[in-house]
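#struct-help
A.M.: can someone run this one for me? Single chain, 375 residues.
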Amino acid sequence: MKIRVERDSFADAVAWASRILPQKAALPVLAGLRIVADGAQGVQLSGFDYEVSAQANIEVTVAETGSVLVPGRLLAEITRSLPPAPIDLATDGARVVLTCGSSRFTLPTLPLEEYPTLPEMPTASGSVGSDAFAAAVGAVATAAGRDDALPVLTGIRIEIDGEQVTLAATDRYRLAVRTLRWQPVEPAMQTTALVPARTLAEAAKSLTSGAQISIALAGAGTGEGLIGLAGADRSTTSRLLDGEFPKYRSLLPDSSSATARVDSAALTDAVRRVALVASRTSPIRLSFAADGLELEAGGVDEAEARESLPAEFEGEALTIAFNATYLLDGLGSLDSDEAQLSFTGPTKPAVLTGKPDGDGGSDHRYLLMPVRLAS
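D.P.: on it. Structure tokens below:
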């Protein structure tokens, strides 16, 4: 194999395809990045760890076709540090020689014949705007669990109903739900899938260079399911999680007894300041009344903070407490300059949304469990 490629495009493609490679691979070949040079297709870079695959295609000048498997993370570090000059990559027996300007690197190769077969991309189910999808996934992923002992809660549930896609994630202490529109291949399509939240968030964020992302689902609910995302000459697949996601819709209240509207940025800043005196296990107390909002943290035997904010409030005055980190995560997930909090009581979950849309509702809801205050 012998190719010449522009430094920036090659470095970006290597970094993207190698990002999924494990730090410590169970099998040495899984630390490898496969490079396939085809005169007609350019060059394809692939990484795979049996759970997630990533592929990037770039245009190069191919002098000799061929395939090779090289240490992926090492190649990513090298290409990132190279000067702005064309890169020449060529195999030399059991090694690969990379030259760029006056820089020259010789890398060992890994046994290509031992590399596993990458999963095939499923047939496309539909497409969605890349920026909207990345924003939706990022907003929902913040509520996903981090405990691998409860794998179902580490995922994002995708529900497809015709032209509507709903994303949901929960760690039992908060729940995030967002709905967006997409263009399905089958107008009456209905299906669900549970995708690892971290994988989906990273993939969606990295595929925003193109206007659209193609989404493909196969075998959902079978234990062998697969999701594929593709856009801008890059594609990735991930195995789906198996298990029953909590019936979250019953947790979202149909009505509220009190509602508050506060400037999102002002509330975020105030929570951050007040939280400085709160210990990791201490909540932030929010008191709502007709004359506005008061935030408090700390207590008699420790540092204490208090801050007031203007707020529009409807309902009976109430005091409710939240974990500061969870509250900040919810505020950060809003695409709105106004935060609306809906309550059914000081000990029941509150729902955080942005400014209502033209239909009087919001496409994003963040349900947060309160912390019980000592009486």
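A.M.: thanks! The first strand starts at residue 2 and ends at 5.
D.P.: also worth noting: The chain has three domains: 2-114, 124-249, 252-368.
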